[in-house]
Specification:
Number of helices: 14
Low-confidence stretches: 18-24
Strand content: under 5%
Shape: globular
Largest sheet: none
Oligomer: single chain
Radius of gyration: 23 Å
Number of strands: 0
Number of domains: 1
Amino acid sequence: MSRESESSEKFIIRLKTYGNSLRLRLISRLSADPLLKGILILGSGTAISQILGIIFIPIITRMYPPAIYGTLAVFSSLISILLVVSTLRYELTIPIAEKDDDAEYLVILSFFILSIITIILFIILALWGNYLAVLFHFEFLAPYYWLFCVGLFGASSYQILTFWALRSKQYILMTRTSISQNICGSVSKIIFGFFSFGSSGLIAGEVIGSWVGIGSLGEKILPKIWRTIHALDVHLVRALAYRYRKFPTYSMPSAFVNVIALQVPTLFLSGLFGFQIVGLFALSSSMLIRPVSFIAGSISEVYTAECADLFRQKSDKLLPLFLDTTKKLFMFGAPVVLAAAIVAPVVFPIIFGSAWKDAGMFVLPLSIFVLSQFVVSSTDRLELYGYNDWSLAWNIGRTLMVLCGFYIASLLQLSPITTIWVFSLLMTLMYVVCYLLNIKAIKRLMKN
């Protein structure tokens, strides 16, 4: 055998040895780090789901002009606001309940409250739908007001089932659900667009996506809950509702104020500049968020599960987990968001069509806000630590600042892009405050 062949064979052997060693180290790391394992599983599903969404969006934007796309943004904003009160935030208690039986009862409690809220919403829309349509600029949905009820019930049910899946760490099931949800929702929008259904078709496609998610998650979970209902202990349900009363008392108002702050741009831009600007804003913000949400949603969900475990164990590893996770989020998110802000004005009209060229200009002012939101929102657990009042105070402060910002922009008659700059800087400032509050809360928790 020649020296060259011997050298080549030794190189191949070393390469195989290194590959096996790397594989064993990766397996060992995943076994020892459940957070990393969960992130990889959910992250892969989120990435596939988001990539599919990006593939479908250029088709959707060529079927629906910015003004029609803006109507979906307004609908989604209103659903997001209703979502935080739909269960009085009892779904947040599902992962942290001490016993699985208690968690099942909390799922039932959440669905019961959701059903009552949905019925109330239906009655309100039946009686005052036309007045509210003028107030919130959703005349485009008449006479399909019932889509609000269907959309709310679907989105909230999916949220409840997601928290149950997080408790049992069914990451693979959640990954499959996310993918099927995105595909069905996007395909539905394209089909409705092909038949020129307009705003109602675009919104119906969004609703269909949420209901598909319910089917995927509920296939294994709901039969178990149904059996529990037949032997329901009403007194235990009341006791659990009282035990976790801080969530409707503090978490719900906090989340409501929080979502108002996030949805103010869509609703205010709709009133100030019309659906055309809202559509451009909605596309630019969603396309900026999508690259970082490849991993943000997965980290947030897995972080919740691991954080809940450490919280139940009263572990002193909470602060290192928080600091390490936020650092990794910033290191990942900063280059992705800044790169997107730079190339957006050039690539938007090419990818989405000439009607969307102005949307690329909104990406730069939004990039600062999105980066801060990406880092802080994924790890903000003030409610879990028991500082629900802090979370409420912070959300009230942020909402007031944003409302003041838009009020000043309206008085000064600022342009749409300048208005978005004001909103972005104010939101960034408040997320820095939230980051510091989380550190202080964890330190107090460990000290106590």
